[in-house]
Amino acid sequence: MSYPEPKYLSDEGEVSAVFRPADTAPELVTRGGTRTHYLATTASSGGEFGLYRVDMPPKAGGPKSHFHKAISESFFILEGTVRLYDGDAWTDGKAGDFLYVPQGGLHAFRNDSDEPASMLLLFTPGAPREEYFEKVAEVAAQWPPERQAEFFLEHDTYWV
After folding, report:
1. Is the pTM of this model over 0.90?
2. Contact status, residue 16 vs residue 32, Cβ threshold 8 Å
3. Number of separate domains in the chain
4. Does some domain include residue 125?
5. Residues 6 or more apart in contact with residue 106 via CB below 8 angstroms
6. Residue 149, Cα to own-chain centre: how many angstroms?
7. Which domain range does residue 64 map to?
8. 102 and 72 Cβ atoms separated by less than 8 Å
């Protein structure tokens, strides 16, 4: 395996890093209280990846088992307990635990505990997950089944 072709071609470096303080407000707060921080989006990473911090309140639940055809998804638990499904079994993920799910891999996650939990979600390559996060509750509660199916296909989400 070798390094990918360079995208930056100058012989001089540039000032282009982006700092995000820890106390930056989340971009999305759901009615259930889950807070999602858009750390690096497809737009800000040039399509390379999407990185999100998800802070879940106690008993927040989570999505049912699904897979993606175009993107991989990785979970890194920061605090609390997040139930992680690897396509075969559920595991209680604790701070420092990591789950990588390649394209096509069945997975799910939940906070069923009485305590808050926090994790990082990494999608590669980048995909417009922000719209998915912002609309998924509305889709499930208000949209007709045909439009729901279209939305999930548009966002590379296949339920099992």
Report:
1. yes
2. no
3. 1
4. yes
5. 65, 66, 67, 85, 86, 87, 160
6. 20
7. 28-159
8. yes
Q: What is the mean pLDDT of the chain?
A: 95
Distance CA 82, CA 113 (A): 8
CATH number at residue 103: 2.60.120.10
Confirm whether 3 is domain-assigned.
Answer: no
Tokens of 150: 């279209």
With respect to residue 45, please indicate whether it lies within any of the assigned structural domains.
yes
* 85 touches 58 (CB < 8 A): no
- The residue assigned the tokens 């990473």 is 45
Dihedral in degrees, nearest 10, Cα atoms 159, 154, 74, 53: -110
Residue 7 lies in a domain: no
Residues 148 and 159 sit within 8 Å (Cβ to Cβ): no
Taking only the tens place, the pLDDT of each residue in 71-116 is 999 999 999 999 999 999 999 999 999 999 999 999 999 999 999 9
Helix or strand holding residue 135 (H, E): helix 129-142
Would you state the structure tokens that stand for residue 101, as one six-digit string?
């799910």
Residue with tokens 């089944």: 145
Joined together, the tokens standing for residue 130 give 């922000």
